[in-house]
Amino acid sequence: MALRELSSLEKYLGLKKPNKYSTQGDKKVPVLQNNNGPPLVGLGTIASHLVKVAKRPNLLGDSAESRAVVQQWLEYRVTKLDGCTKEDTKAILKDLNLYLQDKVYMAGNQFTLADTFMYFGIHPIIVDLSVQEKEQYVNVARWFDHIQRCPGVRHHLPPLAVLRNRIYTSKHH
Amino acid sequence: MGFGDLRAASGLKVLNGFLSERSYIEGYVPSQADVAVFDSLSGAPSADLVHALRWYHHILSYSQRSSLPGVKKPLGQYGPPGLADTTSGSAPSAAKEEEDDDDIDLFGSDEEEDEEAERLKEERLAQYAAKKSKKPTIIAKSSLLLDVKPWDDETDMKQLEALVRSISMEGLLWGQSKLLPVGYGIQKLQINCVIEDDKVGTDMLEEQITAFEDFVQSMDVAAFNKI
Predict the structure, then answer these.
(1) Where in this chain does the record put each Elongation factor 1 beta central acidic region eukaryote domain (chain B) (predicted)?
(2) Residue B92: which residues within 8 A CB-CB, separation 6 or more?
C-alpha cells in the first residue's frame, strides 16, 4: 500500500519519471534506491525527499512550526495508524476529531503532506465506518471530504461519501 | 439561502451549523464567498461556535483576501438552502430611524410629537392588518370515493343511499353515486364526496355511515384524491 501511495504522490507532484521502489522487512517498509547516494528507507523520508525533488517545499509546511507538525503527523501515520487494531481506531478517530475541531488542514493553513498521508492512512478506516459513526466524528468527516476533493490527491483510492447531506456529483464516479 | 442576521447570535448559529461539514462557504477552496461572509461579521465568533471560529481563523490567515477567486454576491445568496433570506431587513430599520428623527426634533411641541408617533403607529398597524388579510387561505380539499356495502340483497339500496346522503357535516359535499353489483345479487353503493381536509376525516365519515347498522354492513374508502 505504501508503494501505491508513493506513486500517487509522484503523480500529484508531477514527477515525470516514476521511481522504482522496493520493500524491506515484514512490515514492507518502502525503500528508494538512489543512484548516487544511500538508500532512503521509510514512507515519511521518501515522501519528503520526493517533495524536495519536485521543488514543492511548501508541501512540507511553510513555517518552522508547521514543518514540525507535518513531520509529527507523518510519524503518527507510520507508527500509530499503520497496523493499528480495531480497538485503536476508535481512540485514533477521537483524537483526530478533537484535533481537527479548529483546523481546516492538518498543519497550518495550507495543504501539506500531512494531509495527503493521513488521508491515505485513514481511508481504509473510513470505508468501514457506519453513517452514525461518521456523524459522530464530524470534524474528521469534514476534513476527509475536503481533502479527497483536492485536485490530484485521490489517485488510487475511491471517493467515499462521508457527509450525509451531500449528493455526490457524477464526475467522481 | 442566507444566514439570517450575522450580527446576531441566531445568524452565527446558522453559520456554525453550515460550517460543521464544510471548510469553505462555497466549494472547496477559499473564494470571495468566504470574503463576503467574513467581512459581514463584526468580529471573531464566540468560542462555543467551534466551526465558525475555525473557519474565521482560517480565512483570517489569508492576508490577500481581495485576490481570492470568485465574485462577491449578496449575503443572501450563501448559506443553507431553505432558510428565508432575511438580509433585506432594511424596512423595519428605516422605520426605526424615522422614529429616532422624531425624537430628536427638539423644536416641535409635545403635542405634535405625540401626533406623529400616533400616526406612525396607526400606519404600521394598518400595514400589518392589510398584509394579514391579503394572505389567501387555501382550503385543502379531497375527493373521496366511498364503497358502502349492505347486509344482503334484500336491503333497500335507495333508502341506504338516502340515509348516507342525510349525513351532513360542515365541509362535506355529496356527489354522484351509482350502484355496483358485487355478486349473489348484492349491490354496493359507490358514492362520491368532496371534503375539506381540516374539517372532515375519513374515520368520522365511517363512524357516521356505519351507524346505520340495519342497512350498512361496512364502508370502505375506494379512492382518495387530493384536489
Answers:
(1) 106-132
(2) none
Residue recorded with cell 471548510: B23
For residue A60, give the C-alpha cell: 512540507
Interface of A with B (CB under 8 A): 101-104, 109, 138, 141-143, 145-146, 149-150, 163, 165-166
What are A85's three cell numbers? 487494531
Q: In angstroms, rounded to a whole number, what is the distance separating the alpha carbons of residues A20 and B53?
A: 45
- Domains, chain A, ranges and CATH? 2-149 (1.20.1050.10)
Q: Is residue B79 within 8 Å of B18, Cβ to Cβ?
A: yes
A138/B21 CB distance under 8 A? yes
CB count in 10 Å sphere of residue B169: 15
Q: Are B177 and B158 in contact (CB under 8 A)?
A: no
Closest CA to A121 of A147, A152, A150, A103: A147
SS3 A83: coil
Cα–Cα nearest to A153, from A1, A10, A2, A3: A10
Q: Which of A102, A141, A166 sits opposite B57 (nearest CB)?
A: A102
Q: List the grid coordinates of B93.
A: 430599520
b/e burial code for range A76-87 (CB count within 10 A of at least 16 → b): bbbeebeeeeee
The whole-angstrom distance between A38's CA and the closest CA on chain B is: 40
pLDDT tens profile B181-212: 888 888 899 999 999 888 888 888 888 888 88
Q: Per-residue pLDDT tens for A117-155?
A: 999 989 888 888 888 888 888 899 999 999 988 888 887
Each residue's pLDDT tens digit, B1-56 = 788 888 888 888 999 988 988 889 888 888 999 999 998 888 888 888 889 999 99
Asked if pLDDT for residue B126 goes beyond 70, the answer is yes
3-state secondary structure of A116: helix
Confidence of residue B105 (pLDDT cuts 50, 70, 90): low
CA distance B19 to chain A (A): 9
Could you tell me if B191 and B149 are in contact, meaning their C-beta atoms sit under 8 angstroms apart? no
- CA–CA dist B11, B2 (Å, integer): 9
